[in-house]
């Protein structure tokens, strides 16, 4: 195993009351769901220019209702469990993100499994998933697999192989597994398969190297982490 630093699971503390936090999570999840429906409807609609203008006016009004206090860059939301657990605004897994499929993440015997179904929002070639989106799913799950193994790290190399196009509107399974470590380096494999058609045939595979930043770099890169740790200790 790595001789690099190891990190505890975070985010279970209660700077805000637990019940309040649960209400917040439910509201974030609900808004994320509605926004994803809006984005999907937007990229699939053939509505008239008049309708599109009216909708744009409505969206602008609604956006105005969310522009109060903003989180600062790097500030970790209280609802998050960083680095190993759910992050509500992740563009891959975030229940609150309009960009996220969102991918559900589950523990497996030797790594993590992700599941999601992609649609028009994530289209590349007509009818198929954008290659960059496949890379994003794998990068996220492979990064989460590092953290789940107790060795969180940042991607320094991600080698993608696209064997077959990934169909939209098809349930997908994403797998990530740590295969070894060397000092602060973590080696990870990943794949995407269809859960319904030929589930044993990999559509996309990836090999990644992740690196755990040393403690000084970690402090410099993630100042918000200190506050999360302090929150944990208080909780
Ligand atoms: C609590 C802590 C937080 C940690 C984090 C948690 C994040 C949990 C989020 C989860 C969700 C996931 C999300 C998806 C994952 C992203 O998307 S991460 C974002 C994309 N990646 C980045 O932005 C990383 C940018 N790179 C960097 O900042 C720096 O390279 C790093 C990662 C801080 C490492 O810098 P460094 O400590 O100076 O590393 P350095 O000494 O140069 O290299 C260390 C070792 O790695 C090797 N190496 C470096 N680059 C490469 C390469 N490209 N190929 C092969 N080997 C390489 C070096 O050769 C060296 O090996 P040894 O000589 O030790 O054998």
Automatic annotation (TrEMBL):
Membrane topology per record: Peripheral membrane protein
Keyword Cytoplasm applies: yes
Protein's cellular compartments: Cell projection, Ruffle membrane; Cytoplasm; Membrane
Chain ranges of the Thioesterase domain: 127-194
Catalytically driven reaction(s): hexadecanoyl-CoA + H2O = hexadecanoate + CoA + H(+); decanoyl-CoA + H2O = decanoate + CoA + H(+); octanoyl-CoA + H2O = octanoate + CoA + H(+); tetradecanoyl-CoA + H2O = tetradecanoate + CoA + H(+)
Chief location: membrane
Keyword annotations: Apoptosis, Cell membrane, Cell projection, Cytoplasm, Fatty acid metabolism, Hydrolase, Lipid metabolism, Membrane, Transit peptide
InterPro entries from the UniProt entry: HotDog_dom_sf, THEM4/THEM5_acyl-CoA_thioest, Thioestr_dom
Keyword Nucleotide-binding (UniProt): no
EC number: 3.1.2.2
GO molecular function, one term: hydrolase activity
Region (Disordered): 1-21
Top EC class for this record: hydrolase
Similarity section: Belongs to the THEM4/THEM5 thioesterase family.
UniProt protein name: Acyl-coenzyme A thioesterase THEM4
């Amino acid at each position: 195993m790595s001789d690099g630093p190891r990190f505890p699971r975070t985010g279970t503390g209660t700077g805000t009351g637990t019940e309040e936090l649960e209400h917040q999570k439910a509201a974030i999840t609900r808004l994320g769901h509605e926004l994803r429906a809006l984005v999907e409807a937007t990229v699939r609609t053939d509505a008239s220019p008049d309708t599109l203008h009216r909708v744009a006016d409505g969206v602008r009004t609604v956006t105005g209702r969310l522009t109060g206090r903003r989180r600062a860059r790097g500030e970790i939301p209280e609802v998050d469990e960083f680095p190993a657990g759910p992050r509500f605004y992740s563009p891959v897994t975030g229940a609150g993100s309009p960009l996220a499929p969102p991918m559900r993440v589950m523990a497996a015997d030797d790594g993590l499994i992700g599941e999601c179904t992609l649609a028009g929002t994530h289209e590349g070639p007509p009818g198929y998933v954008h290659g960059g989106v496949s890379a994003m799913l794998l990068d996220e799950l492979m990064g989460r697999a590092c953290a789940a193994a107790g060795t969180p790290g940042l991607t320094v190399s991600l080698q993608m192989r696209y064997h077959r196009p990934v169909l939209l509107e098809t349930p997908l399974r994403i797998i990530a597994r740590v295969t070894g470590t060397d000092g602060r380096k973590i080696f990870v494999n990943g794949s995407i398969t269809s859960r319904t058609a030929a589930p044993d045939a990999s559509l996309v595979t990836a090999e990644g190297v992740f690196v755990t930043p040393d403690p000084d770099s970690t402090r410099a890169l993630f100042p918000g982490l200190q506050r999360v740790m302090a929150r944990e200790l208080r909780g």
